[in-house]
Amino acid sequence: LLDEDMDGKISSGEFQRLGYYWLKKVLFPVSALLVIDVQNDFIDGSLALRNCPAGQDGAGVIPAINSALDTAKFDVVIYSKDWHPPNHISFVDNAGLRPIHGSCKVNPADAKVGDKVVFTHPREMEQILWPAHCVQDSWGSELNPKLKVVKNGVVVNKGTNPDVDSYSAFWDNAKLSQTELAQELSKRGVTDVYLCGLAYDICVGSSGLHSVEHGFRTILIEDACRGVDLGDIDRMRKELNKRGVLHVNSCKVKDIV
Ligand code: VGL
Ligand code: ZN
Fold first, then answer.
1. What digits encode the pLDDT tens for the residues 13-25?
2. pLDDT tens, position by position, 226-250
3. Is the CB of residue 199 below 6 angstroms from any atom belonging to ligand 1?
4. Cβ distance 253 to 194 under 8 Å?
5. 70 CB contacts (<8 Å, ≥6 apart)?
6. Contact predicate 141/135, CB 8 Å
7. What is the pTM of this model?
8. What is the DSSP string of the chain?
9. Confidence band for 121, pLDDT divided at 50, 70 and 90
10. Annotated catalytic residue within 52, 134, 203, 225
11. What is the pLDDT of residue 123?
């Protein structure tokens, strides 16, 4: 929307673009529901949330999501899938595949789920180690069969690069590349992004922050999310609030979409 010059003054072109941007938001809002990673592995599989510190049941999101889909008329529905190759950097059993930073106390042979490792390839970056999950084309990577999948729903895969994890459905964790999500939303004229799914403190939260960065009005459906760790959920909620993400209950969604 703004010119490259970044001179602090608003040119007439910038003024016009900003005007259209806000007019469109007010006069022609287009809504999208992003259903984040409601996949078997996070519900009944290798990364079942009920076995994570918060002890929440991943399946608990499904009635809230299905009822939001039944009662509210979203213009666009997108399903993201964590979609990892077998040699993915986040899998604990792959900790020995890539060089680890010298200051890191973790020995690949003793690496445990939840350990934080600093890999030096392809760049120096901290990585939390997870059990193998959502391997491409496996049962664990399938959307849970109880989740309502609308016709014309769009599936967006993430975490496909073996060397970079991707919590957000927009950018990967190193912000090296984007999925097609932003483009899919923009080409449909989406202004308002509603978020739900798994896990609140990881993939849903990261996607919400990036949604705001892209300029979408962003609304998180709170009872349609479950998370990994209560402390992290609390920190993520504060960060989302600070960035302007709104929180609503699924029963209210039909009144605002
Ligand atoms: C997720 C951990 C690892 C998520 C994905 O979808 O929240 N969590 N990969
Ligand atoms: Zn993952």
1. 989 988 888 888 7
2. 999 999 999 999 999 999 999 999 9
3. yes
4. yes
5. 148
6. yes
7. 0.92
8. ---TT--SSPPHHHHHHHHHHHHHHHHS--EEEEEE--BHHHHTSTT-GGGSTT---GGGHHHHHHHHHHHS--SEEEEEEE-B-TT-TTBGGGTTSS-B-TT----GGG--TT-EEEE-SSS-EEEE-B-S--BTTSGGGSBPTTS---TT-EEEEE--STTS---SSSB-TT-S-B-SHHHHHHHTT--EEEEEEE-IIIIIHHHHHHHHHTT-EEEEEEEEEE-S-HHHHHHHHHHHHHHT-EEE-GGGHHHH-
9. confident
10. 203
11. 84
Give me the pLDDT at residue 168, please: 98
Q: Which atom of ligand 1 is nearest to the CA of 165?
A: 9
Å from CA of 233 to ligand 2 middle = 17
Q: Measure 64 CA to ligand 1 centroid, in angstroms.
A: 20
Give the burial class of 128: count Cβ atoms within 10 A of its Cβ; 0-12 exposed, 13-18 middle, 19 or more buried: middle
Kindly report the backbone phi and psi dihedral angles of residue 221, in degrees, each rounded to the nearest multiple of 5, phi listed first.
-90, 100
- Counting ligands in written order, the one closest to the CA of 89 is 2
Q: How do 246-248 and 192-198 pair as beta strands?
A: unpaired
Angle between helices 205-213 and 230-243 (to 10 degrees): 10
**Is the predicted ipTM greater than 0.85, yes or no?**
yes
In terms of Cβ atoms closer than 10 Å to its own Cβ (0-12, 13-18, 19+), residue 221 is buried
- Is the CB of 74 within 6 Å of ligand 1? no
Token pair recorded at residue 101: 């930073």
